[in-house]
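Sorry to interrupt, but I need a hand with the structure work. Please put the record directly below this note.
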Amino acid sequence: MHALNVLEFAQIKQRLASRCETSLGAASAGDLTPKFSTDEVWELLNTTTEAMDALGRHQVPGLGAARDIRDPLKRVSKGGVLGGKELVSVLDLLSTSRNLRAFLTPKRGDYPKLGAYAESLIEEKDLERSLGDALDGSGELRDDASPVLLGLRQKKKAATSRILERIQSYTTGKSRDLLSDPIYTVRDGRYVIPLKAENRGKIRGIVHDSSASGQTIFVEPEEIVQIANQIREIESAERIEELRILTVLSARVSKVAEPLGGSLETISTVDLHFAKARYGYDTKGTIPDRLNYPCIEVQRGRHPLLAAEIVIPVDIRVGKGHSVLITGPNTGGKTVAIKAVGLFVAMAQAGIPVPTVQAKLGVFSQIWADIGDEQSLEQSLSTFSGHLKNIADALRWLKPGALVLFDEIGAGTDPAEGASLAKAILIEMHSRGATLLASTHYGELKEFAYRTEGFENAAMEFDTKSLKPTYRLIVGAAGASHALRIAERYGIPKNVVEAAKADLGADKQEMSDMLERLETSQKQARAAQSEADRRTDELKKAEDRAKRKLAEADQIRSTVHDRAHEAIESTLRQLRLEAEQLFEEVRLRPNDPAVRDRVRGGLQGVQARGSEFAAAYAPRIQEDDDAHKITKGMAVRLQGYSQPGTVLEEPKGAQVLVQAGNLRIKVAVRDLTPVPVVATIKARPNVRLQRAMSAANEITLRMMRAEDALLELEKFIDDALLAGLPKVRIVHGKGTGVLRKLTQDFLRKNKNVHAFRLGDATEGGDGVTIASFE
């Protein structure tokens, strides 16, 4: 497709292929083309969305082991026998298929698009087990692949050992002096010894070779020959048995060859979906929001083939009767912007995330592009003719809803005729329902975009001071070409430039100057808007900080309330413990007058402290005759302020001086409300109460000596019981187990411990004991 070629979509596919794990997935990436059916496009994009979510939240199984074995599967389905390496590839495919199926099946509800692939993934555990039992990773049959094979290989191993034993006897025994070197070697698979030629016949056997000098002959001793022949017979039987095993395994594979091929295709498809997701993460891409009409809208879109550190993001909306003409100087980035938009559409309609902060897409029915030098030497076409051929093809096959991209439309011929032809082409395509994004230098087309409904100007920004492009696209503005300014900067004599200005004509020069002034005004307006946005952002941040401060204040109030509640609960728990101890004394010695008197006094003390504590926590509002009278030193709440303040003087009029935090301000008396006075707690010191309130629910005994650990544990358990804690956590570590045994022996003997157990995986495992008291 010509449009995809000039947009360099092939480079996107190459980057996608590099992120595939399988060779078939990479091949599918190479064949990828955009879809032009709305349902197909959103099916692809929704699947990519699921793949990105799955990669971000789960450990996705690897797919790289699924190799391309379509030819072996075709051969085995026709009765062929597969080799060991091919069967290992089948095993890897079965394993990959099973793992992917196991991953996708339970997630069907979360990922309906990806989950649907689970149905076409084969799972043959028996065959997978049989292949794994019979073959090692390199494709060799294991010794225990069958009892017969095991027996043959054991015989072969024993015979080989006998050969080595006998051959070594020649190199170390009495025959050693007959040899040129006390070593043995192998010739043509036979074990031989280097016999001196002068000793020929002294060791009976078969001569297999001789040295270059002829002074050494390599002899296989006669007794070794007999054993080697036995090995050859065993090896022949071994090959027959191996072939039988491979035939049996291949027959089993042939029964599932067709679903295996389907699994391979499914795995490669899923691989491509995950490659798109990886590409999206790597490029910080997004999935576009859906529009119901042909349109592309991007914010901060980055050309996907340019380095992130040099690319200038673009904001643009093209579609639904909204076509855009980009103007501006050469090398200003017009072509880059047009190609970027074309690639955004092609990528999105192929299911690939687009590198933008935010994007919206309504599916286009076609993509046409005429970009760059279309000169063809083979077809004897000039650049202008090449452009016309592409435009003619587009006009011939144009569909409503198409996206058409033109770079320098009408260029390459007489400017007047080129501009007129360009306007006619734009009008014709627009009337037939196409959306156009084009660049031009023609002033007539700038005017055309201003006064023609459905068209809008856009300009590539140009810094008139440095006479350099900024590569920023400004929608709604027409850019000046700045040709004369640039010519002067590059050394064209000033008198030549002035002559060109004079020849340009007053009207055109005025138009050019007007465009330059407009461009400058728009740049200033954008700077002002940017400053306004910055200030708005600062105000928003200040508002957010104020909200956070209010939330923190609410949290502090909540924390104070919780702490007060904890203090009350702890005190009540202490009072209950003391009362229970007193009752226990009476129960054990009911007839002892001294005990009764002591208990009676103790209960009176408990009751007195309870009354004192209740009175201390009861809020008391000042009960003056005039409760709302404002006086000096009074705590007050100011209308419109969350922070309370203090009155600094007696009111003498309608206003009074108030200290609110670090501020001293005059406030209307009517805007002040007295704050209720809450008495402070004056509970008398109680050692046992303090102990209960500070009790911890965890202790660490690791690295302690046994005696020290036992003392600390006793104190810890006493404090926990006194505090009324339901359970505690004791960290003793694993180590030699001494501290664990000491801890559990102590807990077992303590009658107040209801139960104890080792911690689970989330609590510390065997290195922790959890004890409960209720």
